Amino acid sequence: MTDFVIPSPPVVTIPVAGGGAFPVRRVYCIGRNYAAHAVEMGHDPDRDPPFFFQKNPDNLDPSGTFPYPSQTNDVHHEVELLVALKSGGTNIAVEDALGHVWGYAPALDMTRRDLQGIAKEMGRPWEIGKAFERSAPVGPLQPVADVGHLDHGSIALTVNGEVRQTGDLNQMIWKVPEMISYLSDYFALAAGDVIMSGTPAGVGPVEKGDTMVVRIDGLQDLTVKVV
To answer: A Pfam family for this UniProt protein (predicted)?
Structure first.
């Protein structure tokens, strides 16, 4: 038994629908993976090579509340499908990639847009805008055995009952198998890794008191209160 010199941090988990918990190792996030969102952010939606950034595992938050973070006046919602891996490896072929998926969950990539914008202008990493505490609200994971592989169907977000974001999973520029394959060329993927697969158009600000509802066809809804 290892003699830790400080208390060991707890294992980060995502609850599983019907019981149990999924332990998280890493969180990969793809940027600008829906054409309309790329356009609204001022970029060409052509199918350039994908790019990824990371959140921290303990940014994932299944509590149903999102505390408005410090040092910002412009926090945006980004609705996303989260993909959870049961296995991994390197140089995974696209045709083999879905065999590594354990399940799917609704999620939000909350963003301190003002701080992200400053980082972009200065050519710096995005973590200050993306990887802050509780920046990834997440709903329960549902296994592939129950829901199948989600490659089409509505993905939407309402804020206080008003539709803000809507799209279809088939509008992803880079599909889930392609994301897994591409990442595995640069990283050794493993069980417990999760991928946040991008957001459709309509991102925008939230305020304290707002209620966000994520709806993805085939999954349970995720309701998050901004506090």
So the answer is: FAA_hydrolase
Look at the pTM and tell me if it is higher than 0.85.
yes
Does 1 reside within a domain?
no
pLDDT in tens, 68-105: 999 999 999 999 999 999 999 999 999 999 999 999 99
Per-residue burial over 183-210, b = 16 or more CB atoms within 10 Å of its CB, e = otherwise? bbeeeebeebbbbbbbbbbbbeebeeeb
Check which CATH number belongs to the domain holding 107 and give it. Answer: 3.90.850.10
CB neighbour list of residue 183: distance below 8 Å, 6 or more residues apart: 28, 52, 189, 195
Q: Residue 6 domain-assigned?
A: no
Number of domains in the chain: 1
Q: Structural domain of residue 210, as residue ranges?
A: 13-226
Report the distance separating Cα 213 and Cα 159, nearest Å: 7
